[in-house]
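Predict the 3D structure for this chain.
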Amino acid sequence: MNDVARPAFSLFRWVKYATYLLLSLNVWFFFAEEMDSARFALASGDAMASGIQLFSATLDTVAWVVLLLLFELETAVIPDHRLQGRLRFAIHGVRFLCTAAIVMAFLGYVGEWQTLLPSELLGGDACARVNEGWSVMIKLDDFVPLSLENCGELPADTRLVSGLEQVVASPAGLLEGQRLALVDVINSAAWILVVIMLEIEVRLLTRWGAASRPVTQIANTLKMVLYATLVVAAVYWGFKGDFLDFWDAALWLFAFVFIELNVFEWQQEIRDRSPAT
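Done. Predicted structure below.
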């Protein structure tokens, strides 16, 4: 019986770690994408805030990958009796740094969304600005130089994006950018809440035993709502043709299936040991 179960576990483990590897590769993909749009820096704000807003996805992905690996170590790799002393302190220290980075990335998403909100009607002919270093925003993080080829295609009600330096956009393109930026904010907030719920579940509810069941049911319901929100965000990115965001969101949802299974097995182990203590 053990011989039959072992290959299944091995396959499960390899699929899980392959997913983690793919998520790690996304760090490079987001960095390359954001480097491409980095020259369209914000016109206002200090250098630190601008950097966070420009590289929010990269910072966010790095922090989440490290946090994911920490969850994996605590719930599936390191035995409970080893999670103490310096090792526990080190893990909690790295988790604190990752949490700070995730919050900073969330604030970067909020800042990017707020940057796209103010706009005004572009005065004069857009083609007169061709040689002045202006750009056209197609959608979020997607800019092209203003040229003689595309300036004539801009509608009469072209908008000047007030928060960006020398950037114009069609009303439809600006609205698309605003919506995508808002989805980034909602997605980031939902993931933060998911991890808060997991931390409560792992640190508190697992130790309370039967007394925690009503609270656990509420926590599970809230997590289902949050996961549903994340699925909707992924589907939205898929329909809007933002493949990298869709691919990344789908991978994260798949990865957290493994984390939830780890937490479930860990809880079961603690329950099995509790009668003997």
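The longest strand covers residues 135-139.
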